[in-house]
Design a protein that fits this description.
about 25% strand; Purple Acid Phosphatase, chain A, domain 2; globular; alpha/beta; binds fe (ii) ion
Length: about 260
């Protein structure tokens, strides 16, 4: 069994005084990561919005925290990220697209449209995925991306869904090795299936969005992360863990953010 922890949407600010809807996102990221540490995962997957504002200060803090972990970590960009700024803060280490874990392959996709909250893979990313899947001899594949490829019953977020999700799933359907798809962005837990393929999102390490909401609304639920256990027989166990953080100071009536 290979144990992975997915962490998403920490929205780390450029400076320590940054607050998102009243929340100190550096503090909540730190608290969540301390609980993640006790899970003793083999790999950490960070599925985007690592920064709140594309800034180098945010990435420097992010990677400083990640360097306190012995385990390798891998990240994908979200709509609040800038790949070049993250790569430079990572000492030039490039955004890695695949991770070989023996029988399991993890493919990391970029679903970001520059200067937009909406998701789209585009022909280049879909071609990359097709090439990886065609060349892979792995029994099992997991795909990670930032945006949701299916509607999640939040009208305002569903407009941001991966625009070319139909093409994405046509591709996925050609490769039975694809066992699961994991994403961030929606700041809430979501669990579903596409045929035999597991579909899961993950809570943010900071603010949560209200489930089943037509308009932007915050939820008072605690931050969290997702544990993903890859079994030798090709099956997956996965579940969300919440992290109770006292006095987060969330402005629950906040009507949105940039
Ligand atoms: Fe986010």
């Amino acid at each position: 069994m290979i144990k992975i922890v997915q962490v998403t949407d920490p929205h780390i600010g450029a400076t320590a005084d940054y607050r998102l809807a009243g929340v100190d996102t550096r503090r909540t990221f730190h608290e969540v990561m301390e609980q993640v540490r006790t899970e003793e995962p083999e790999v950490l997957l960070m599925t985007g919005d690592n920064a709140a504002d594309y800034s180098e200060g945010a990435y420097e803090h992010f990677f400083a925290v990640m360097q306190t972990f012995e385990q390798p970590h891998y990240w994908i960009p979200g709509n609040h990220d800038k790949v070049s700024a993250a790569e430079s803060a990572a000492g030039g280490k490039p955004f890695q697209r695949t991770l070989d874990l023996g029988d399991w392959l993890i493919v990391m996709l970029d679903s970001v449209i520059p200067r937009s909250p909406n998701g789209e893979l585009g022909s280049e990313e879909l071609n990359t995925l097709e090439n990886v899947l065609e060349q892979s001899e792995h029994s099992n594949v997991i795909i990670c991306l930032h945006h949701h490829p299916v509607n999640i019953n939040c009208t305002w977020l569903d407009t941001q869904r991966v625009a070319d999700a139909d093409e994405f799933f046509e591709l996925v359907d050609r490769f039975p090795s694809v066992k699961a798809i994991f994403w961030g962005h929606i700041h809430q837990e979501f669990n579903s299936r596409h045929g035999e393929v597991l579909l899961h999102s993950c809570p943010s390490t900071c603010i949560q969005f209200l489930t089943d909401s037509d308009e932007f609304a915050l939820d008072s639920r605690s931050p969290g992360y997702r544990v993903i256990e890859l079994n030798d027989d090709g099956s997956i166990n996965t579940y969300v863990r919440r992290v109770e953080i006292p006095d987060m100071g969330i402005d629950i009536g906040c009507l949105g953010y940039e």
